[in-house]
């Protein structure tokens, strides 16, 4: 009797001291962050590799004829433990890293690359996948299954499964080297960002800076044990206000130079040799796989399909935006001359004079609007929009493990039913990389028996920090960034798919995020959340009108600096042969070719362009503006009904786009929602470039 009782319970009773090897009994199964220590990752990764190897072996050794169920489905469900540890590690290594995590990431990258290659280049496995694919018409499959089969097959081919054994070995060596270089790039960048500080010791050197900005810089100095001084960093919320308001041109130049020289200082953290090697390895890899260039390879699976299509599109917007940017530069030069400044406008002057002209023209600057954009209120605003559109409700939970005190966690429900968990982590710190992003600790899917698995979503930003006497008060741009990442979060939360592992193409995934930006400054939405942090007064109509009028201001600059980075990305990835790359020269020549004006630097210079060297936007940085065609047109679908909260349009958007993840062709999804393909007009009009 006793033995019978013990045996079934036995497996569950034994708890490992490694939390990754246990079932998580936390609320909603979120990662037990306080139990996870650096020493747990490596053993969990190794166990994860081993488990997936066993799962793959079982697929290969299945004596039955290959079919969807015994091959494609089993593959999709393999690697559960690996995904469990990989997601936590990846998220924390970006949002809250330290020396131990960085060391692990250097160690794990080549092992993971080898593991992926062991699967992707396994010929027996590929032959099974190919057999299912070749016989696809004989199986009865759902649309999602058809797409999964096609994607799985193509992923194998694109990973080199059809290459000769000799070429497979070359590919393995390239992948291993690339994985190491990409990690090194990101670690150098973090070191360079944290390594620079502009320290101000005399009060008169703060001339022009608003009180709130000074208080922030004082708080930063204090946190660095430099009481009584003021510190500005290369983090955007610290740097941008300095560039906007500091009257000290020499100091603006100093700080901005610190920024645009990141990774290009010929020191131990220099990224030039690394990116030259990455670019060449990518070209070599693409050639090996039968593509002209890396761009051809990368774009094949995107909505745009070819580099030519991307170039043509970027060219159209570039032609519309460049004259506008030139006119903006001329207006600034005129102001400089008027003020008796005897110098030519330089890149570090742009924010300062833009701010002045904006003040002159619209009587508006960030410091006027900040009090109405308290971060908690902005989040309430985005929750309100999600509630009006999709009926979602957000409840703050304090009983859920977190990895840092700054994290706020919400349970998301609809009609009283659980939808998912959303963690929001908003403030910059040295352990966090720059920028803003959204990811998942667990993505929505059904388990192998068909039971729903609910998503655990995380969004991370680098927003203005609170100071000693003020809460976090955002610029309207920062509020927009929150809405943007929240759009990605909604895409993850409202996902309703069956199989794990589907991915949305880069040049479509920004539609759900960017469409959310349209609601942030809508008067109807501002009325709900934009309340003065001290008085509770709703943002005056007069300011809302000014915000609206100024929304097309400086768009020449914003568009051109973005496009310059996109073009740079495409130039590196259009290489058809490995070449000797002098990075500074390559960058200058590329920008000269398109005629970038010297007063503007690309939004990212090569040596800190994490999107393309470290992140997943290689030959894909164009995606943001590409998706703007879609989001501008999709938002018009709401506008045209006269109701920006139109329930019918919202539920169609959810059904045809948000819920589907990557389970359908993007253009087909879009047409199912809108009934037609979008044109470029709405984009140009929104940016005032028409
Ligand atoms: Zn995004």
Question: Would you write up a description of this structure?
Answer:
The protein has helices spanning 2-13, 38-60, 68-76, 80-95, 99-120, 123-134, 143-158, 165-195, 211-223, 236-245, 249-260, 272-288, 294-299, 307-338, 350-362, 366-369, 375-390, 476-493, 506-520, 523-529, 541-549, 555-573, 583-594, 610-613, 623-639, 647-656, 666-674, 681-686, and strands spanning 197-200, 230-233, 392-397, 407-414, 417-425, 437-442, 445-446, 452-453, 456-460. Helix 5 packs antiparallel against helix 8, helix 8 (165-195) packs antiparallel against helix 12 (272-288) and helix 17 (375-390) crosses helix 18 (476-493). The strands form three sheets. It has a five-stranded mixed sheet. A two-stranded antiparallel ribbon has the order 1-2. Strands 7-8 form a two-stranded antiparallel sheet. Strand 4 and strand 5 form a beta hairpin. By secondary structure, the chain is α+β, with helices and mostly antiparallel strands. Residues 484, 488, 510, 513 line the site of zinc ion.
According to DSSP, the number of beta strands is 9
Mean pLDDT: 95
Largest β-sheet summary:
5 strands, mixed
Poorly predicted runs of 5 or more residues:
1-11
What percentage of the residues does DSSP assign to strands (E)? 5-15%
Question: Judging from the principal axes of the Cα atoms, what is the shape?
Answer: globular
* First and last CA, distance: 82 Å
Structural category: alpha+beta
Strand line-up in the sheet with most strands: 3-4-5-9-6
Bound molecules: zinc ion
Count of individual helical segments: 28
Assign a percent range to the helix content: 55-70%
Radius of gyration: 26 Å
């Amino acid at each position: 009797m006793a033995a019978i009782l013990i045996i079934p319970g036995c497996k569950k009773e034994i708890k490992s001291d490694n939390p990754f090897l246990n079932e998580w009994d936390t609320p909603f199964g979120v990662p037990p962050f306080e139990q996870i220590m650096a020493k747990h990752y490596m053993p969990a990764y190794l166990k994860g590799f081993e488990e997936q190897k066993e799962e793959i072996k079982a697929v290969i050794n299945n004596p039955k004829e290959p079919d969807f169920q015994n091959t494609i489905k089993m593959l999709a469900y393999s690697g559960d433990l690996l995904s469990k540890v990989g997601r936590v590690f990846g998220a924390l290594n970006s949002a809250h890293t330290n020396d131990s995590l960085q060391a692990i990431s250097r160690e794990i990258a080549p092992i993971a690359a080898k593991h992926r290659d062991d699967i992707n280049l396994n010929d027996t496995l590929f032959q099974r996948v190919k057999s299912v694919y070749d016989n696809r018409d004989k199986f009865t499959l759902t649309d999602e299954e058809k797409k999964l089969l096609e994607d799985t097959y193509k992923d194998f081919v694109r990973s080199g499964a059809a290459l000769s054994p000799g070429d497979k070995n070359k590919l393995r060596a390239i992948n291993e080297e690339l994985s190491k270089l990409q990690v090194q790039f990101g670690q150098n960048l973090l070191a360079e960002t944290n390594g620079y500080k502009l320290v101000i010791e005399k009060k008169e050197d703060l001339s022009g800076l608003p009180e709130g900005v000074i208080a922030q810089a004082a708080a930063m100095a204090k946190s660095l044990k430099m009481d009584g001084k003021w510190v500005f960093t290369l983090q955007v919320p610290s740097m941008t206000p300095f560039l906007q308001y500091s009257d000290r041109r020499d100091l603006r130049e100093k700080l901005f130079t610190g920024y645009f020289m990141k990774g290009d200082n010929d020191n131990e953290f220099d990224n030039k040799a690394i990116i030259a090697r990455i670019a060449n390895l990518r070209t070599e890899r693409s050639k090996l796989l039968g593509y002209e260039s890396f761009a051809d390879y990368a774009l094949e699976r995107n909505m745009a399909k070819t580099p030519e299509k991307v170039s043509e599109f970027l060219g159209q917007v570039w032609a519309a935006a460049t004259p506008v940017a030139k006119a903006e530069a001329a207006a600034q030069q005129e102001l400089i001359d008027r003020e008796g400044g005897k110098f030519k406008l330089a890149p570090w002057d742009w924010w300062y004079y833009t701010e002045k002209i904006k003040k002159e023209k619209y009587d508006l600057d960030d410091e006027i609007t900040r009090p109405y954009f308290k971060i908690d209120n902005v989040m309430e605003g985005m929750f309100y929009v999600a509630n009006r559109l999709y009926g979602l409700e957000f409840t703050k939970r304090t009983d859920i493990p977190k990895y840092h005190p700054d994290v706020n966690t919400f349970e998301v429900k609809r009609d009283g039913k659980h939808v998912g968990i959303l963690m929001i982590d908003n403030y910059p710190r040295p352990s966090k990389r720059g920028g803003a992003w959204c990811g998942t600790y667990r993505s929505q899917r059904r388990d192998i028996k068909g039971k729903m698995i609910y998503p655990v979503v995380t969004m991370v930003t680098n927003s203005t920090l609170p100071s000693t006497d003020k809460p976090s008060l955002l610029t309207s741009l920062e509020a927009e960034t929150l809405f943007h990442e929240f759009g990605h979060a909604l895409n993850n939360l409202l996902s309703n798919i069956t199989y794990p592992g589907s991915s949305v193409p880069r040049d479509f995934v920004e539609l759900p995020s960017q469409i959310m930006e349209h609601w942030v400054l809508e008067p109807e939405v501002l009325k709900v959340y934009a309340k003065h942090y001290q008085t509770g007064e709703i943002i005056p109509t007069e300011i809302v009108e000014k915000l609206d009028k100024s929304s097309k201001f400086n768009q020449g600059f914003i568009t051109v600096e973005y496009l310059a980075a996109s073009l740079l990305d495409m130039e590196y990835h259009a290489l058809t042969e490995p070449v000797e790359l002098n990075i500074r020269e390559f960058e200058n020549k590329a920008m000269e070719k398109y005629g970038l004006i010297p007063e503007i630097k690309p939004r990212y210079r090569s040596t800190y362009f994490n999107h393309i060297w470290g992140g997943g936007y290689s030959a894909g940085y164009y995606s943001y503006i590409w998706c703007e065609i879609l989001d501008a047109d999709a938002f018009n679908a709401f506008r045209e009904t006269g109701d920006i909260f139109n329930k019918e349009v919202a539920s169609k958007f959810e059904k045809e786009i948000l819920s589907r993840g990557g389970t359908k062709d993007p253009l087909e999804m879009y047409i199912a929602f809108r009934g037609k393909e979008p044109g470029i007009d709405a984009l140009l009009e929104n940016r005032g470039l028409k």
